[in-house]
Amino acid sequence: MGEHVLHMPGRNDAPSARGTRTIKRRGTRTRVVAGASALAVAALVGVPALAGAQGVLHACYNKHSGALRVAKGGGCHGGEASLQWNTRGPAGPQGATGAKGAEGAVGATGATGVTGATGASGPQGSAGPTGPAGPTGATGGTGAQGNTGATGVTGATGVAGATGATGAQGATGSTGSGETGPTGPAGPTGPSGPTGETGPAGLADLSGPLTKGETETGFWSVAAPGIQTVGRESGATISFPVPLKAELDSLHVFYVKAPSHVAGNCTGNSAEPTAAEGDLCVYEQTEIKTDVAEKGIQNAEGAAGASKFGAFVLFEALEENPANAVVAQGSWAVTASE
């Protein structure tokens, strides 16, 4: 294929028509809209066969004359600028699905085709399962008596006869003087005994939560001498071995003083702590305090109540006194309500 020249007017060239430029190719003249974009479009339309394997058109633009030629398989000369563009733009988005056309009329039945040749015989199939036994045939007539057969071989020896009755016991012999014989082999293992009764249900898995109606208990204690500053706090930590499913608010935690052991729904004592469902009961066993009072039961955030994992039993100094001290201990019980 020969060289194709696309002419772009230079500074001194007169335009062939207002707003147009001329692209010249051997035996063809095409007018396109002026401008680089229009020129690229015209070039793509007019010479698509000149594009490379990747669909890219390469051209050389003469910086002096304004001529533009397609360069296929070669580079640009001196005084020329290399240009390239794709002959095909990126694929546009897929259009919307068109409406379904009307159903066409049923065509006429075609003529019956010629019968095809008989195919080759297939391989022999595997044997089918055995059929059920047929009914018993009628008894045939008595046949003629056959000849006497040869004497058979001697039969096997018969089984031994039963043991006879035990004879009368003989007289006791004299005591022997031999050594004690070896210990006999161990007897067979006896049969297994019956299965025992099912034991009482244990607590829930320690990872929790404690199931509804289950109760867990524990011990608490505090010893804090020298809390002489007014408002200073000291206390004991209560940790639930099995966490609760939900926190307890201030209406469901109780500090039960000794010796009355009466508070809320708490009916136990320090020796046998109990709690109603959804309650924490902290029982006091002994108490030694000097200007110190029990402040309450709080959760980890410092609010009245208990968290899912435990609570604090707090005491607070009431007056400035170097002798202030608190020593107390007891037990607690919490029962899950859900």
Characterize the structure shown.
The protein is mainly beta and 338 residues long. It contains 1 helix and 13 strands, in the order βββαββββββββββ. It has one helix at 36-46, and strands at 4-7, 20-25, 28-33, 56-62, 67-70, 80-86, 215-225, 233-239, 253-256, 280-290, 292-298, 310-317, 325-335. A 4-stranded antiparallel β-sheet has the order 1-5-4-6, covered by helices on one side. Strands 7-13-10-9 form a 4-stranded mixed β-sheet, with no helix packed on it. It has a 3-stranded antiparallel β-sheet with strand order 8-12-11, with no helix packed on it.
Brief descriptors of the model:
disordered N terminus; 338 residues; four-stranded mixed sheet
The percent of residues in helical segments reads under 10%
SSE class: mainly beta
Strand order, main sheet: write it out: 1-5-4-6
N- and C-termini, Cα separation: 91 Å
Alpha plus pi helix count: 1
Proportion of beta-strand residues: 25-35%
Order of helices and strands: EEEHEEEEEEEEEE
Question: How many beta-strand runs?
Answer: 13
The whole-angstrom Rg is 57 Å
Principal-axes geometry comes out as: flat
Mean pLDDT: 75
Given as residue ranges, the uncertain stretches (5+ residues, pLDDT < 50) are 1-47
